[in-house]
Design goal:
This protein is an all-alpha fold. 60% of the residues lie in helices and 0% in strands. It is built from eight helices and no strands. α2 (17-23) crosses α3 (28-36). 13% of the residues are buried.
């Protein structure tokens, strides 16, 4: 669900997505996904954005239906020694992740079916 209230107030006040991204300590592409509803905005981020825009949280808040939660406070997301999970995977939309998970489930089922087929005696002509 797109954050139309947030987007409208941000634009009305003349701020860019980059400026808001800086306030919540994320990159602009991740913030863009938050504003478009692909990535969840956590409570602390709503509070920081509201303070920056000088509005109440209620003025900008809209319910969340995003499938991806990016927790920038989690140590794994901040570990840059391996490139950081956040920098590697936060560009993937939730719909693609769900599609991949469904495909993995399908492959597991197919693998089990093929194992059973190999176990059963085959009729030879």
């Amino acid at each position: 669900m797109q954050k139309e209230k947030l987007r409208a107030i941000r634009k009305q006040k003349g701020y860019t997505q980059q400026q808001i991204a800086d306030i919540i300590a994320t990159d602009v592409s991740n913030y863009s996904r938050k504003e478009s509803g692909d990535v969840r905005i956590i409570k602390d981020e709503w509070n920081k954005i509201a303070r920056f825009l000088d509005v109440s949280v209620e003025d900008i808040y809209e319910d969340e239906e995003a499938k991806i939660v990016v927790n920038n406070d989690h140590p794994v997301f901040n570990d840059s020694s391996s490139g950081g999970i956040n920098s590697q995977f936060n560009n993937i939309p939730g719909s693609i992740i769900q599609n991949l998970q469904d495909y993995i489930s399908f492959l597991k089922e197919e693998n089990e079916r093929l194992k059973e087929e190999l176990k059963s005696p085959r009729s030879r002509k």
